[in-house]
Specification:
By secondary structure, the chain is an alpha+beta fold. It has 11 helices and 8 strands. Strands 3-4-5-6-7-8 form a 6-stranded antiparallel β-sheet. Strand 7 and strand 8 form a beta hairpin. Helix 2 runs antiparallel to helix 3. The longest helix is centred in the N-terminal third of the chain and has 27 residues.
């Protein structure tokens, strides 16, 4: 009896959740208002928290730019590109859920990431410790452009930026910069980060022999970095000899997996930011070409 009630309640809850997550066919004004209020609240609180936790302990100065384009082998720029693309994608998908027009999705949703990170760049520009970076601004714009251009050209996302991470031995030498805990290292240790462009093979070929979810991914990473540049490392007594790494691997486009469950579709959309571990070819000037049975 109790088991039957539990099953009935679970089925009812899943049905209600699925109904709630189903995108509206026509404009749902209350949903759209909720999206705008929710996004403004979350991003506003994030910026306030960022200012309190990151910037308040450093002196302020006049707004200024710096040229950091040679630092960290541009891994930080890849991070900006990845972030603006996906924040914009989520913003666009939220407006799609509300039934907003395609124009509104692209104009106000997909530019959400660019707007948010532009404000962060302004914070940097007024901080004496850092400074606004034109390279960051270009990377931010490129991430947004990748999303918008694909929607305009193909009305689907055939190329998806993705991210993977593994811990390295470098963080222990500069934990204040590269992170103390695993959570910090995911954000700070560029040695363990890999950024990918994942291409959906079926979308480009339309071949019935290729599964719709199968992707081919090209990755970029860098290694042996304790400081932003080799010259900076030398000034601090290190000879780091950093180098770039390039990858080729298979991947899965989770959004192409067919399901009638809008809960699973939403879950797949969130996790489609992460590169699936898979056999991988790696090339760099230090080790040449090598293969990994599984790389993440």
């Amino acid at each position: 009896m109790l088991f039957g009630l539990f099953i009935s309640f679970s089925s009812y809850s899943q049905s209600k959740t699925n109904t709630f997550l189903t995108p509206s066919d026509t404009l749902n004004t209350s949903r759209k208002t909720s999206v705008y209020i929710g996004e403004a609240s979350v991003l506003g609180l994030t910026l306030i928290g960022l200012n309190q936790l990151w910037y308040k302990d450093y002196p302020q100065t006049n707004f200024h730019f710096i040229n950091d384009n040679k630092e960290w082998n541009q891994m930080d720029k890849a991070g900006h590109f990845f972030s603006t693309y996906h924040v914009g994608r989520f913003g666009s998908e939220m407006l799609q859920w509300s039934g907003a027009s395609k124009k509104e999705q692209l104009l106000y949703g997909s530019t959400l990431g660019f707007g948010f990170l532009t404000v962060v760049e302004v914070f940097d520009g007024f901080s004496q410790e850092w400074g606004a970076s034109w390279g960051d601004v270009v990377a931010n714009g490129s991430g947004t452009l990748l999303y918008v251009s694909q929607e305009l050209l193909w009305e689907e996302q055939r190329i998806t930026p993705k991210f993977s991470f593994h811990q390295t031995s470098k963080a222990k030498y500069r934990p204040e910069t590269l992170g103390v805990s695993f959570q910090e290292q995911i954000l700070k240790d560029y040695n363990g980060q890999t950024y990918w462009l994942s291409f959906n093979l079926y979308s480009f070929t339309k071949s019935s022999f290729i599964p719709k979810w199968l992707n081919l991914a090209v990755g970029y990473g860098a290694e042996n970095m304790l400081y932003g540049t080799d010259s900076e490392a030398q000034l601090n007594g290190y000879n780091q000899n950093s180098y770039r790494q390039f990858y080729l691997s298979f991947d899965v486009d989770l959004t192409k997996i067919e399901t009638k469950s809008h809960f699973l579709r939403s879950l797949f959309s969130v996790f489609n930011t992460i590169k699936i571990p898979a056999p991988t070819l790696q090339y760099n000037d230090f080790n040449g070409l090598r293969g990994h049975i599984i790389y993440f």
